[in-house]
Task: structure prediction
Amino acid sequence: PDKDVRSSAAGALAQLGDASAVRPLFELLNDTDSLSLVRRSAAEAVKPLIELLKDTDSFVRSSAARALAQFGDVSAVKPLIELLKDPDKVVRSSAAGALAQLGSAEAVRPLIELLKDPDKDVRSSAAGALAKLGDASAVRPLIELLKDDFPNVRDRAAQALFQLGDTSAVKPELLKYIKDFHENVNYVFTESIISAIEAIAQLGDDTEQLPLAQLGDDTEQLPDEIWLFAETARNQQELFAIRVAALKALAELGTDEAANIILDTIKLEQENNSFVLAAFQALGNLRSQAALDFLDEQLENLTARKQKWRKHHDKDIPDELRSQTQECAVSQTFSGDKKNIWQQSQWETTLGYAIAQINPEKSGVELLYHELAEVRKGAWLAIGRAGDVNIIKELINKRSDSQPKQAHFRHAAYRAIDNSLITIEVRGNEQDLKDLTALSIEHKGIKDRVEWTIYQLEYRLHLMAKQHSNDSMQEN
Result:
């Protein structure tokens, strides 16, 4: 229909002040007409919509609240604050979202009170609203929300603390909260401590890095958050989950000090298999040269032990299995110790993944030739996560040039290509699309797989462009 007709319809609906007009009004508020004539006419409905906040139908009250958020009219703030006390949880959540969109500082205190709401979804909505308002007075209440019984609420509180963005206000409070926990241990709040650690890591390290040579074993010189993570990770009396969270947080900070701490911590935990694996993963996330050198050494030692073990047991492999590859034969012959084999494979996969994550284009590709299957698996998973078209191109060429006897590499390379394409389908951009289209591929299977990714990527980018266009028109 013509925009003038839609504009007249919006004006008429605004005058009705009837519950049945809420839905069509809400749709008109999203009109993308570049002149915004329709939306201006719909905006005349503010007063009738405020009246509809008192309607007996909870759907009408909720819809009216969401519609009022579109106008930016401060006259709706107080009625929406009153709606935070509504008996219906959906209405309370809608009111919280509307107040956040209106951006009124007057709503901060009522929204903080809403963090105590009996419904978990309402508490989560209140946390999200406070994050958008960006008021520092919400920091301590949001930290308290990290103790919530529901994981989704705790995660939303941690995300809100990160979104507040004021590290000078948020980080000291989070650090104090964690230190208080260590002094007065309450295992009921273990998950909240993990959420607090994750929130600090997301805020990042805004302090000047110290040269590693100056640090030694003296963690007292470190910035507060790194010192806290170091002490937590090294504390063998601490809960395992919290220690692992500290490792991940150190990796998230991405500093040289963090790498040094994780390397030192591993030396203290050689007998703790699960912790060492978590530390390897953290080093992979750090992506530092020191971490790469250490992980390369660990993999070299592991491979040497495996080769020695194979050589020792070769004489015990039954004749009927000798026609198989050595790796498969050994696995079948000595599969009785399932726990030991599982731990061994975990080390191989984790080391392969961590090394390839740090340097996918060189070390990662090289590991696809590795003699250990689980190492190759870790490498192709990490390469896949990178989603790099240049690496895909290199792997296609190397696979094409490989010999039939290099079947292990050919398989690993294909898995790396496939996983990379999956990542590109989800995260790829226009340049990735251009680079994929330019690839010259002879192998039919790989060519078909790449063409499927091109189709998926084109479709996703088209939808994104369409959404961006609609958003721009609404802003105008």
Observations:
- Residues 1-19, 28-43, 206-222 have pLDDT under 50 and may be disordered.
- The radius of gyration is 29 Å.
